[in-house]
Amino acid sequence: MESIKVGLLGLGVVGGGTWKVLARNAQEIARRAGRTIEVTRVAVRDVAKARMLLGDTVAVGADPYAVVTDPSIEIVVELIGGETLARELVLQAIANGKHVVTANKALLAKHGSEIFEAASARGVIVAFEAAVAGGIPIIKAMREGLTANRIEWVAGIINGTTNFILSEMRARGLPFETVLAEAQKLGYAEADPTFDIEGVDAAHKLTLLASLAFGIPVQFEKAYIEGISKLAAEDIKLAERLGYRIKLLGITKRRPQGIELRVHPALVPIKSMLANVEGAMNAVLVKGDAVGQTLYYGKGAGEEPTASAVVADLVDVTRLLTSDPEHRVPHLAFQPDAMADTPILSIDDVITSYYLRLTVADQPGVLADLTRLLADSGISIGSMIQQPTETASESASTSVSTSANSNASASVHSADLIFLTHEALERNVNKAIAAIEALPFVRSRVTRLRMESLA
Questions:
Q1: 140-155, pLDDT tens digit by residue?
Q2: Among all residues, which ones are annotated catalytic?
Q3: Domain 4-137+304-338 maps to which CATH number in 3.40.50.720, 3.40.50.10990, 3.40.50.300, 1.20.1560.10?
Q4: Spatial distance between the Cα atoms of 272 and 244, rounded to a whole number of angstroms
Q5: Which CATH number is 139-301 given?
């Protein structure tokens, strides 16, 4: 049987890894796929550098359109990243009747509906295992392995950069800026780390997981996104003291009113599985009604872990080449004509528990006023701790004069209060925070972090 001809767009970290894995494991891959998978054409910016890796057996050029229009190419692997050119190339490949494998989560999160619709109309496959969580086969698990289940929720650590930063901040007590600089030196963070640390990368991936879980169109623009750049080392220490760890989570939940779609730092119980995912590792927890909780853990990035997912997609596409397009596994797990129009909920409509930290004047009546205000907002307190703190004015008065009146000194004493609430509506919590910050005895902004029991 003839080999499958593959065209490769991009030969960077993942593209180079894909070539290496295909070459090293060629025999094993052919045994699994039933045919040899052969890269015959590559488009790259640096042609000379590519030839050093590929040798003379592959056609190498700088024009990516030459790959997607080559009649001999059956599968196009898009690994150039970005949105504009990648979108044009993928749509052109589909129009030419070619199957597509991509690791481009941003492309699919923003243009997935258009791309999947075009592929379905043309009868070709768009495979994207490598777009979420690197080498972890979470797409296949949700699209095929869990099809008997009504998925209730998905929660994941799906960005290795932020998980590395949070792990180091907790283990070493260092501030965010210091650990970010170390992550950049080690290659875990880009020179411009915005997409990672502000949660955008995780939101791209979560958007795809939500579509697979609930059969809804990809709707990245409706995701709530909050990163870790403003997270204080103090809150990481306090969370540990209270029996929690802070992780940047992507969370999507089915609710009667709609679908929650949110990325933000969250306190998770220290004994939970996700709390113990450290360093640059990824993990996704999926709750199905029949199977219960299942955990998928592994390397979420890197040359060969991601290449592993790309090659797995190539094998899947090869196996399905002769199958009837109408009976293939749907791109987003649900049949295209059965996609739901379930709304994505605003973050104001999310219900979860909260960690609230604030600094107040250490005087009688403060705690009673705060608990009354929270109760009036429909917020029930699960637990509370208080610890003394020293304000700047107190330090200054102490250094200037040791003979100051003790009552005057007491007037500048402060205390940190930490409340852990029961489940509450985010809208009510926002109103309560605004009211708390307006109180005369409150000396700081309220630090608010969400809590997820993952139960």
A1: 999 999 999 999 999 9
A2: 205
A3: 3.40.50.720
A4: 9
A5: 3.30.360.10
